Amino acid sequence: MTLLSVSNLSVRFKQHHQDLAALLDISFSIQPGERVAVVGESGAGKSILGYAITNLLPGQGYIAGGSVRFRGHELTSLSRREWRTIRGHRIAMIFQDMMMSLNPVLTVGDQMVEAIQSYRKVSYHQARQLAIETLQQVRIRTPEQCFYQYPHQLSGGIRQRVIIAIVLLLKPELIIADEPTTALDVTLQAEILHILKEICERNQVALLFISHDFGVISRICERTLVMYAGKIVEQGPTLGIINDPQHPYTQGLINALPQMALPGQPLNQIEGNMPSLTARPSGCAFHPRCPYALSQCRYLTPEFIYTGVSATACFVIEKMQTFNAESEVDHDTDI
């Protein structure tokens, strides 16, 4: 059975007497144990997607339409009480801001014991032993010492490992990680990614990994969703998308990676900026920044077409496919 199924999900925000679209008709699924990335620039809607799935939308945000099903059960209609049995225990979220995820006035041990005893009837001694064993699993060298420390006494890398350990204690089937390595240096980033991947593989835990960095997701995710202005514009196997990006936006993201520029030369960039919720362009939202935009891109919204191993929502790609198909027909006729 499919673990998570998102169908035509739309999210809107009420702001200053306006009703603004943040997500538009998002559809995808995740299988048990599968690792899926959501990638795009800031403002693309990546984090909002994670918050919508877990019913943690901020402020005046609300789900305007669509479905989110977890193991066949609809999540959008759950009550707050019902969500307490799902969030954390079956679907866990790792946030970008590590200090916001940990209570600054409680020790690591107190927070871990509280997490364990929230769903298991065990003694403090048993919970403590389980917590220390889990801290060892995430490769904290001095788990007993860490157990009695406060979050502010720990480095960023150790805090993130503690958060992963707490998530592990709850034994979720799906982890949603919202840019969990952004604030870490490259070495710590690689270690955290390795730990996450290892945990998912060992325990058959699915992962929805939110990031802006193709270099990061290539290390951990099997499949990728590329988002722009609240919509998915390309999706497919991660390595397939990285090696042969189809959508002009995906091409721009990959070309903007530092390693794609020649030494001593300026870094490549996508001209323009992500549109705000109040100024979303008509048609394909990327057309004002797209170097290949056609006339219909300005007023029509493209549907997904399959291009090799990925699916792409782009009129330019559709036109190229049509041209190639007609060329093959003409060639066959000539023969």
From TrEMBL:
GO molecular function of the protein, one example?
ATP hydrolysis activity
Which keywords fit this entry according to its UniProt record? ATP-binding, Cell membrane, Membrane, Nucleotide-binding, Transport
User: What Pfam families does UniProt report for this protein, alphabetically?
Assistant: ABC_tran, oligo_HPY
Would I find Cell membrane among this entry's keywords?
yes
Recorded hits in CDD domains, A to Z, give: ABC_NikE_OppD_transporters
Subcellular location as annotated: Cell inner membrane
What Gene3D superfamilies does the entry give? P-loop containing nucleotide triphosphate hydrolases
According to its UniProt entry, the protein's GO biological process terms are: peptide transport; transmembrane transport
Q: What is its EC number?
A: 7.4.2.9
Which residues does the UniProt record annotate as the domain ABC transporter?
A: 4-254
Recorded catalytic activity of this chain's protein:
a dipeptide(out) + ATP + H2O = a dipeptide(in) + ADP + phosphate + H(+)
Q: Which PANTHER family match?
A: DIPEPTIDE TRANSPORT ATP-BINDING PROTEIN DPPD (PTHR43297:SF2), OLIGOPEPTIDE TRANSPORT ATP-BINDING PROTEIN APPD (PTHR43297)
Q: What protein is this chain from?
A: ABC-type dipeptide transporter
Q: Which gene encodes it?
A: oppD_3
